[in-house]
Design brief:
Chain lengths: ~500, ~500
């Protein structure tokens, strides 16, 4: 079973989503339990990956390879390294939680909703496991469809505008990605003599592509990823999509879909075109720093809770991009762990907003105040999650941000520590917007009549918040459990960069 | 001479079967004197027999009737395509309300057959006169079909418009052909190629003018810009089976003759070597195709965004789709041709499917307005989900056949370093999302109006038909090796090696 574990993980959700279509609409309980059962089974199966993964190896593991499109040598080719392992585990972990979060909040068309959830889960695992460019592209694009419906059908008032914007923005990036994939394949064919779509194999050739071609290819690939991340100034779809999406949609969007972009940057942009990566670092890093500060500043002034968290995502994701472009072991490790942290913390924040919305049917911050008096347990949960997102030592957010800042401060690739200094201001801003949010919602006098009858967090809600809190603390206290998973993979990625750097230097010397 | 023709008549069996079927259908219609499924059944049986003979011929190469027409894998590929689409459209017609209400009995059956016959000849003719005649056979039949429901004012108007545009463009084409004949002294396209190569004076502007004029005839058949003006009106006015037939079969026939004409006439004689075409120096016909293709994509997609009628939307979408298909011809090599074939097969399933779904919906709602489809996803989920599949396929989203078609087309372009053209094409697919997704949006994201939210039920026949289109659309999107192999094998012309 172990050699097929990845296929099992991808196709169990996809195949087991089909029986849902034949369920009767009235069997609400069965629909929900069935989906939860499938997603929990996938989670347990994904633990096999965790326990049998060899952290010493740098190569891809659990590899499966079958011919798919012979004419362009495209394979059904999946396999994982430490980075994708962490993201797959995050996916399988977040999915059951989002299903539980939708349990009482999705009240109509449940069958279709849970069907789409399972499709999403399968294709997300596919994206993180694919090692063939075409296969990756198919999964990457397919995710748009369930997400489009999820925001468009179960979202709030302005959902159609938001979902169309999301669709068109990402589609635009994907189209460039497709051109990039095909062009790269032919460029590599020109060097190596054979056409191939396998990422590990292309990696060994694409490093030697001339710099100008690498730069074009880098732009073609990365624009798609940076739109997905989203990096300033491509971020405008994100607040709309987040605000309009149902709670589960927001959680999946923030925790998983945005990670596709940062994952793509590492797996493709960096691994395939390291020279262009080095060359274009200043531009992307400047955008990342602008995004970090701009996102944080905008968060402070938001009146809507979901919008506040959405902009904080822009800021946090900027950190991850900066860490990736710093190209040091610490910063890259920090970026990877920060992807997980952001998934947990921001996911949890969206869950919290979802709970508040469920009780009061508004997300406007001004409507609240003094909720601590009626929701004592909830206020503790909210506080922990906020602090984790701010980056309080002892909780997960600190580890990621700390590693990124340390790693990028001394980064050769960034040339200047100014980036780091500027970005670290955002750590203070994040304390401002999140604590101020907490203060306005939870503290103060309980004035509004409607708020007096609000119920505290229920046991059911606690059941899916606790696992998240558990990992928030675990990563904060014992980060090494997770850091060691990605260590050798990050080393390998950076080796590629060192290779390109020496290559660029020798080429530079030859010109002189 | 007589025996020589007779000995080769076996090669003409597919067409002969079609002619016999046609006559039998007319007789059956006269004898039965009422609307009957028997006639359609006979027609389908005849098509299947004809298909069997095409299958026997597949891979052979021969020329017959004094090099009027040829048999080669290329022609056979298109014949398969025509047979498949004609059978589908005949099945369409059975459940069409417009046909049921029409006062005619079974005329459409043999009109479809005669159009298929014309298309067969178009795909295999290598003589300009033959090309023109077969094209006219297809056109004349289409005029009648477009005005089939003659009491319907829109239908008659559509037929009228169609005739005027058709007459004008085929007139231009025959005039250009006569010019070319005057220049080379032959109607055979292989001879033309030989003479053009030999004389070496081909860079004269006359050739370019002739080319542009001939393209008018082909462009009109495949509804490419700027010969597309008839398309939206005719698509809107004609009964839906006819529209589907025009959009798929007639347009594929146009492509078959267009590709053969350009690929054969303007190549250095016997220059189909190692997968690339040696175009005769000085005649840059691919540039004409680029202009037509880009214009079709841009105008088709941008105008489609504003359409409110589903039929008109599909009309503009067809215009844009011919633009994509023509991109394969621009590349002018084996890869481009293969890509076109793959796209045409994908297009057959997804476009016919879209038309069929539209017909099912229009039959019940008595309207093909997109706004009336509000919330249809909840009123008739099966039809709507199929429609979503077709819409996503037409816009080229992965895991559908449409993506495979686009993937191969753009691969061929990028391989030939025509990156900018690939960009235009792909940017256009983003634009096309606006209207394809608009249909999905109305069906699933919007709620039906008050009082219009009852379930809309259909018979099982309709569902089976939808599956016939939807299943291949998805299947070829996931596993397309056989399709690619078939297309690669078919990209071979008579006498070109």
């Amino acid at each position: 079973m172990q050699q097929h574990i990845l296929s099992i993980l991808i196709f169990i959700p996809v195949l087991f989503s089909i029986p849902l279509l034949f369920f009767k609409k009235e069997w609400e309980k069965q629909i929900k339990s069935y989906t939860l059962f499938v997603s929990l089974a996938v989670f347990i199966l994904s633990l096999v990956l965790y326990f049998t993964f060899n952290t010493e190896l740098q190569d891809f593991q659990f590899v499966e390879k079958t011919v798919w499109i012979p004419s362009v040598n495209s394979y059904y080719y999946v396999g994982i390294d430490g980075i994708s392992l962490l993201l797959i585990l995050l996916t399988t972990f977040i999915m059951p939680i989002s299903i539980l979060a939708s349990w009482n909040t999705i009240k109509f068309r449940q069958k279709e909703f849970y069907f789409l959830m399972l499709l999403l889960e399968g294709s997300l695992i596919g994206v993180f496991a694919a090692l063939d460019m075409i296969l990756f592209y198919v999964f990457w694009e397919f995710i748009l469809i369930p997400m489009y419906f999820m925001i468009g059908i179960w979202g709030s008032e302005n959902r159609i505008y938001a979902t169309v914007k999301f669709f068109i923005f990402t589609m635009f990036g994907s189209v460039l990605l497709l051109v990039g994939i095909i062009w790269l394949a032919f460029q590599v064919q020109a060097i190596s003599g054979i056409i191939t779509m396998e990422i590990p194999r292309i990696m060994t050739f694409s490093v030697y592509l001339p710099l100008d071609k690498q730069i074009y290819l880098f732009i073609l690939f990365s624009l798609g990823f940076l739109i997905k991340v989203p990096l300033f100034p491509f971020h405008t779809w994100l607040p709309d999509a987040h605000v309009q999406a149902p709670t589960a949609g927001s959680v999946i969007l923030a925790a998983l879909l945005l990670k596709m972009g940062t994952y793509g940057l590492i797996r493709f942009s960096l691994s395939l075109f390291p020279s262009a990566f080095i060359k274009l670092t200043p531009y992307v890093a400047v955008l990342a720093v602008i995004g970090i500060i701009y996102g944080a500043l905008l968060s402070i002034v938001q009146k809507d809770m979901k919008k506040l968290i959405a902009y904080s995502s822009v800021s946090h994701l900027g950190f991850i991009v900066l860490g990736t472009f710093a190209l040091t072991q610490e910063a890259m490790q920090g970026s990877v762990i920060q992807m997980i942290n952001h998934g947990l913390s921001t996911g949890a924040l969206f869950l919290i907003v979802g709970m508040i919305y469920e009780r009061r049917h508004t997300k406007e911050i001004a409507q609240f105040g003094g909720l601590m008096k009626v929701m004592p347990v909830f206020s503790v949960v909210f506080l922990i999650v906020s602090l984790s997102s701010i980056g309080l030592p002892g909780l997960n957010g600190f580890i990621g941000e700390f590693l990124i800042l340390i790693g990028s401060y001394n980064s050769q690739n960034l040339h200047s520590s100014l980036y780091t200094i500027l970005s670290s201001t955002a750590v203070i801003f994040s304390a401002v917007y999140l604590l101020w949010l907490y203060q306005r919602v939870m503290l103060g006098p309980l004035e509004k009549e409607e708020n007096k009858a609000v119920k505290d967090i229920s046991k059911f809600e606690m059941s899916y918040m606790l696992p998240v809190l558990f990992f928030i603390v675990w990563i904060g206290v014992q980060p090494n459990t997770f850091l060691k998973l990605s260590e050798s993979s990050v080393k390998k990625v950076l080796m590629n960069y060192e290779k390109a750097k020496t290559l660029m230097e020798t080429q530079g010397n030859e010109k002189k | 001479m007589q025996p020589q023709i007779l000995s080769k008549i076996t090669y003409f069996l597919p067409e002969t079967v079609l002619i016999i079927t046609l006559i039998v259908c007319i007789l059956a219609d006269v004898i039965l004197k009422k609307k009957s499924l028997v006639v359609s059944g006979l027609a389908i049986a005849g098509l299947l027999v004809s298909g069997y003979f095409v299958y026997l011929q597949y891979g052979m190469e021969a020329s017959l009737f004094k090099r009027m027409i040829v048999i080669d894998p290329y022609a056979s590929f298109f014949k398969f395509l025509f047979i498949l689409s004609t059978i589908f459209v005949l099945l369409f017609a059975v459940s069409s309300k417009e046909f049921r209400d029409a006062e005619h009995k079974n005329e459409h059956t043999y009109l479809f057959l005669s159009l298929a016959l014309g298309a067969f000849l178009m795909a295999s003719s290598v003589n300009m006169l033959m090309m023109y005649l077969s094209l006219e056979l297809v056109s004349l039949t289409s005029y009648v079909l477009a005005g089939y429901t003659k009491k319907e004012k829109r239908s008659s108007e559509a037929a009228m418009k169609y005739i005027i545009y058709g007459a004008a463009s085929s007139g231009i084409m025959i005039y250009a052909m006569s010019l070319l004949y005057g220049y080379t002294g032959t109607m055979n396209i292989y001879e033309t190629a030989r003479i053009l190569t030999a004389t070496g004076t081909v860079s004269s502007p006359m050739i370019i003018i002739v080319l542009i004029m001939i393209t008018a005839g082909f462009g009109y058949k495949i509804s490419s810009v700027p010969f597309h003006f008839w398309t939206p009106d005719v698509y809107e006015g004609s009964p839906i089976p006819v529209t589907a037939f025009l959009a798929v079969t007639s347009s594929a026939a146009g492509f078959s003759v267009m590709i053969r004409f350009f690929a054969t006439t303007f190549l250095k004689s016997s220059a189909f070597v190692a997968g690339s075409w040696q175009i005769i120096d000085g005649i840059k016909w691919t540039e004409i195709i680029i202009v037509l293709s880009v214009a079709s994509m841009i105008i088709g997609n941008f105008v489609a965004v504003w359409q409110t009628s589903m039929k008109r939307l599909l009309a503009y979408s067809s215009i844009a789709q011919s633009g994509y298909i023509m991109l394969g011809l621009v590349v002018a090599n084996q890869a481009g041709l293969t890509a076109m074939f793959i796209y045409l097969v994908a297009y057959l399933f997804m476009n016919l499917g879209a038309f069929y779904a539209t017909m099912m919906i229009a039959n019940r709602l008595n309207s093909d307005n997109i706004e009336d489809m509000k919330g249809l996803g909840y009123r008739s989920p099966f039809v709507s989900i199929s429609m979503v599949v077709f819409m996503f396929a037409l816009s080229g989203i992965p895991s559908t056949a449409g993506f495979i078609g686009k993937f191969y087309i753009f691969s061929a372009l990028i391989e030939k370093q025509m990156l900018w053209l690939a960009f235009i094409g792909l940017a256009n697919s983003v634009v096309s999302l606006f209207f394809y997704v608009k249909v999905v949006k109305y069906m699933f994201l919007m709620k039906p109006d008050e009082g219009y939210d009852s379930k809309v039920q259909y018979g099982y026949g309709g569902y089976v038909m939808l599956m016939l289109f939807a299943v291949p659309t998805i299947f070829f999107g996931l596993y397309f090796v056989p399709l690619v192999k078939f297309a690669e094998a078919s990209a071979s012309f008579f006498g070109l090696r």
